[in-house]
Write a structure and sequence with these properties.
16 helices, signal, transport, D-Maltodextrin-Binding Protein, domain 2, about 550 residues, globular, five-stranded mixed beta sheet, SBP_5, SBP_5_dom, single chain, Dipeptide-binding Protein, domain 3
């Protein structure tokens, strides 16, 4: 079964830019050789620019997995795998696809395939040469095998197969035209080494997934101590330009308050701010820089629509009317967000449609819609239909503001007579329970997606109950719009189609849309990184500088 990695770019859900990470502290590196001894390459920074014997200390929120396609690897793993591996494309700082393992690409005239020319100077970290065979193996034998349920594999439902043209060229053959394929290939779609995985069960290969991964990225694996840290070192042979420091240590720190405390003490030099309550405190600290960011990111409530009661649109609309989203944004987010209207965030100015159905806070309207759906209060005040109380089990993952938001949703729903059982669980358990096993009635989480209006992987009926369609929503009319969006060849066509997508999703509510967050990255002033989200910044790690 296909499953999604959220969040964060990301719950998957997910996800999840969210990155649950993050920080770095600069320490002398006393147990490794100087990075200046690394072999020089024409596209690496000059050796004088490389800071020798320096370690950056980061943080991740839970136990990671080093296989980027592992079914339950999400926000806890992505900050690490992003710099261990490469995809065919990567994110530019403008959030558009840029060359990585592929130097260039172009679609066929009929739109049914894309040709990618590959770099010729790439080696795996074990010294073996990278080739087109690795690309074909990753997709044909792992991503496209539905029975494996690789994380994010539902993004590639329109890919038929990958064909090796020669050692330095591949063709991606499609079932249907897909104009935004290069965007999705930059979205956690990393290439794995065929010479290690061939003939192996990709999820049972513990020697790779948990012990010693082999990648092509700017950093190489050194050591993993469960519950403690992951140690990486600079890859001196990296084709994309070497980093200016020698090591990164990702400390496993589940508690965001502990991450903040270590940032303030100088132990960590960079964090992704997941608690807006601390934003002003960080911004007032003269030793820190706090960069506020917008992203293609939205928070939501998913309702399990394999259950008949949640397939009634009046029930979904009622539950959204019952939530005071403005109060959540003011109280929980401290104003760092805006009410969400659908799956395309305002960062996509060209495509964002603000003229859609909206749902102000209206508990009486919520009760009236539940009455139209056949519910009436029982003697205890709970809404009931056909003798069954409207009772909802809602797991909440310990990440960022998810628990606080879930508690408020619980309170708002109980005020209109909905019984809500809230279960707070750790992040790894949450991903297994909600994303992998779909064991929930309702849940609060978020999506990060490529900065492109193509949301087919998250909403198409083919991904219901699998992959990224967490609530299992099915609608043939929406399917047709999403497929048309992938076929469209002009911006004008796409704008019209995705305006219609937003109008439909605002009416139908596949998810209950909560808010678009304002993100922030806080760094010590001695570390300079591109002013973008953490994962995108990692794709440009050669540009990081340290005073």
């Amino acid at each position: 079964m296909q499953k999604r990695k959220m969040w964060l770019t990301t719950c998957a859900c997910l996800m999840a830019t969210v990155v649950a990470l993050s920080g770095c502290s600069i320490k002398p590196n006393v147990d490794s050789g100087s990075a200046s001894s690394a072999p020089a390459a024409s596209n690496q920074p000059a050796q004088a620019d490389v800071v020798s014997n320096v370690t950056l200390n980061m943080a991740t929120n839970a136990e990671p997995n080093f296989n980027p396609w592992f079914p339950t690897g999400f926000a806890e793993s992505q900050p690490i795998t992003e710099i261990l591996y490469d995809g065919l494309t990567k994110w530019g700082t403008d959030y558009q696809p840029a060359p990585a393992l592929a130097t260039d690409w172009k679609p066929a005239d009929d739109g049914m395939s894309w040709t990618f020319n590959l770099r010729k100077d790439v080696k795996w970290s074990d010294g073996q040469p990278f080739s087109a065979d690795d690309v074909a193996y990753t997709f044909n034998e792992i991503v496209l095998k539905k029975e494996l349920g690789a994380s994010n594999s539902s993004n590639f439902v329109d890919v038929d197969k990958v064909v090796v043209v020669n050692p330095n060229q591949v063709q991606i053959m499609l079932k249907k035209p897909w104009s935004s394929l290069p965007n999705y290939l930059a979205w956690y779609a990393k290439i794995l080494p065929k010479h290690i995985f061939e003939g192996q069960d990709p999820w049972k290969l513990t020697s790779f997934n948990k012990e010693k991964p082999v990648g092509t990225g700017p950093f190489k694996f050194v050591k993993y101590s469960a519950g403690q840290f992951v140690e990486l070192e600079r890859n001196p042979d990296y084709f994309g330009g070497g980093a200016k420091f020698t090591k990164i240590i990702f400390n496993i720190i589940p508690d965001s308050n502990t991450q903040i405390a270590q940032l303030l003490s100088g132990t960590l030099s960079m964090i992704n701010v997941t608690d807006p309550n601390l934003m002003e405190k960080l911004k007032s600290n003269s030793n820190l820089n706090v960069n506020e960011l917008i992203d293609n990111n939205y928070y939501w409530v998913a309702l399990d629509q394999s259950q008949e009661r949640f397939r009634d649109v009046k029930v979904r609309q009622a539950l959204l009317y019952a939530i005071d989203r403005e109060s959540i944004i003011k109280g929980v987010l401290k104003g760092y967000g805006s009410v969400a209207t659908g799956p395309i965030a305002p960062i996509q100015e060209k495509y964002y449609n603000k003229n859609v159905k909206t749902y102000g806070f209206d508990p009486e309207k919520a009760k009236a819609l539940l009455k139209e759906a056949g519910y009436a209060p029982n003697a205890e005040g709970f809404m009931q239909k056909d003798g069954k109380v409207l009772e909802i089990d809602m797991p909440a993952g310990q990440y960022g503001v998810l628990v606080q938001a879930s508690q408020l949703v619980q309170q708002y729903w109980q005020k209109i007579g909905v019984k809500v059982n809230l279960q707070v669980i750790d992040w790894n358990t949450y991903v297994q329970k909600v994303v992998s096993n779909r064991q929930y009635d309702a849940t609060v989480c978020w999506w990060r997606a490529p900065v492109d209006p193509d949301v087919l992987a998250y909403y198409h009926s083919n991904s219901a109950g699998k992959g990224n369609n967490i609530p299992g929503y099915k609608n043939p009319a929406l399917d047709q719009l999403l497929e048309a969006g992938r076929k469209a060849k002009t911006t004008e066509e796409r704008v019209k189609i995705y305006n219609d997508v937003q109008a439909l999703t605002a009416e139908e509510l596949p998810y209950l849309y909560l808010w678009y967050p304002t993100l922030a990255v806080a760094t010590q002033k001695n570390l300079t990184v591109p002013k973008t989200t953490f994962i995108v910044a990692e794709d440009h790690i050669s540009e990081w500088t340290i005073k």
